[in-house]
Amino acid sequence: MSDLRITEAFLYMDYLCFRALCCKGPPPARPEYDLVCIGLTGSGKTSLLSKLCSESPDSVVSTTGFSIKAVPFQNAILNVKELGGADNIRKYWSRYYQGSQGVIFVLDSASSEDDLETARNELHSALQHPQLCTLPFLILANHQDKPAARSVQEVKKYFELEPLARGKRWILQPCSLDDTDALKDSFSQLINLLEEKDHEAVRM
């Protein structure tokens, strides 16, 4: 091989190295999903979302109307619209459902029987709502660190999830503020359901 060819080969290799090191394009954009987060007052919605956003617990204030948080994950960004859970606000929840791609329902697994009954009714209503019934649901049985907390199996039975949610995409997971890894894993499972729904829509 001539000296000219050898020089050209080295120059081309240098060019490839330069492109690899210095000319990388921006990383691909993470998909974004719009979610609605509902649950009774005191279920822990705001605290859980703030934990995922690495916000100080001292800054957490219970949501009275609605708030929106962008919750970042490695493979997606969740734009979560959290709705207040007070009696006088729940009747307006459905006004905020439009455009949602998934649902987060947070319940207090250590609550009173009356509150648990109310939470069950609200979840049943959400699962059957025309704007939500085809969407993935993440149901979080929160406050598992409290002595009175019901187990996931107890919640599943009491909420009659197997017959009611048959054929729907849903996940029921235990959680507490003390176990961030388990909380993140629950949301990762939800993201998988959202991605599956995206892929189904592309194939149609």
TrEMBL record:
SMART domains: ARF, SAR. It holds the Pfam family Arf. GTP binds at residues 39-46, 85, 142-145. Mg(2+) binds at residues 46, 63. This is ADP-ribosylation factor-like protein 15. InterPro entries: ARL15, P-loop_NTPase, Small_GTPase_ARF/SAR. Belongs to the small GTPase superfamily. Arf family. The keyword Acetylation does not apply. GO terms for molecular function: GTP binding; GTPase activity; metal ion binding. Coiled coil: none annotated. Keywords: GTP-binding, Magnesium, Metal-binding, Nucleotide-binding. The keyword Nucleotide-binding applies. Gene3D superfamilies: P-loop containing nucleotide triphosphate hydrolases. The gene is ARL15.
